[in-house]
Design a protein that fits this description.
Blueprint (H helix, E strand, L loop, with lengths): L2 E5 L8 H10 L3 E3 L10 E5 L6 H10 L5 E12 L2 E9 L10 E2 L6 H5 L13 E4 L16 H14 L4 E3 L18 E2 L7 H4 L3 E6 L4 H7 L4 E3 L15 H5 L8 H7 L3 E3 H6 L1 H5 L3
């Protein structure tokens, strides 16, 4: 019998129980424990931070040609009040998420079904908005950054432009990742202001690798990124003097979001087994 090892929590904030139900509907025996690993024919896990237990299990199964499927909070984590999760097959030694995985891409119908309006590009914004990740520990440069990135990107932006720099720390961090090399013109806490409101006077958004980039792009605000990969990187630029002032504004964003739509699912969909069936399980 095929067996799936689910190495994530069964309950919120993880969708482990829904994952197990979906795989069982496809005929898999499922386990949340690492017993009898020689019986495992598929691994489903959360983000593969370097040197983590998850990464260790992934490397173990990779050497045995066992398929590995990685999950994370959705690149658009909330749609119409429902929580979504990324799901993709790991490629090589990457993290498997945020565009570093593979998944079957369909047409734009899934994206269109969500009814999300992509706003025209904004050409009147004033500020540079930096949206860092937690930045407390530089665990893995493929995924996130440490304090040093916040310090460095702030100094570079100051040297590239006279525009005001706004700083919006990650909402999930107890200790705010703010630059030590200078003071932003505004520090905006998520609890005090909705991201939609913040974006109203933004010229471009600067990120390392975070889902705020997708919200920015959908709202017509260009994005510059610094990490090695980003889900919507085809629509984004890099932090250079030229692109800070003239960020990319590609003509058609729908195909990119249409493809990305097939890489995230809600718990009801996961429990149906269909997302895993599409991935070949």
């Amino acid at each position: 019998m095929r067996k799936a090892f689910i190495f994530m929590g069964p309950k919120d904030p993880y969708p482990g129980s829904s994952v197990a139900l979906g795989l069982q509907r496809l005929g898999y025996k499922t386990s949340f424990t690492s017993e009898n690993l020689n019986e495992v024919t598929a691994l489903i896990t959360w983000t593969l931070w370097r040197d983590s237990r998850r990464s260790g299990f992934a490397d173990f199964f990779s050497k045995r040609n066992i398929p590995i499927f990685c999950m994370e909070n959705g690149w658009l984590p909330d749609i119409a009040g429902r929580k979504y999760f990324q799901l993709a097959r790991r490629l090589g030694q990457g993290s498997g998420i945020n565009g570093q995985g593979s998944w079957p891409i369909g047409d734009n119908s899934r994206w269109n079904s969500w009814g999300i309006h992509i706003k025209p590009w904004r050409i009147s914004g004033e500020a540079l908005l930096v949206c860092p990740q937690r930045g407390v520990t530089p665990k893995d440069p493929l995924i996130s950054h440490g304090q040093e990135w916040a310090d460095d990107v702030f100094m570079r932006l100051r040297s590239f432009s006279d525009r005001p720099i706004w700083w919006r720390p990650h909402s999930g961090s107890a200790r705010l990742c703010v630059p030590k090399t200078g003071t932003p013109d505004r520090i905006i806490l998520a609890k005090d202001e909705d991201i939609q409101e913040t974006l109203k006077n933004v010229h471009c958004t600067v990120v390392y690798s975070t889902s705020v980039s997708n919200i920015s792009l959908i709202n017509g605000v260009p994005v510059l990124f610094e990490g090695p990969r980003l889900f919507a990187e085809k629509l984004c630029g890099r932090v250079t003097k030229e692109e800070v002032e003239h960020p990319p504004m590609p003509n058609n964003r729908t195909p990119t979001f249409g493809a990305m739509a097939w890489a995230q699912w809600n718990e009801e969909e996961l429990a149906s087994g269909e997302p895993f069936k599409r991935l070949g399980l």
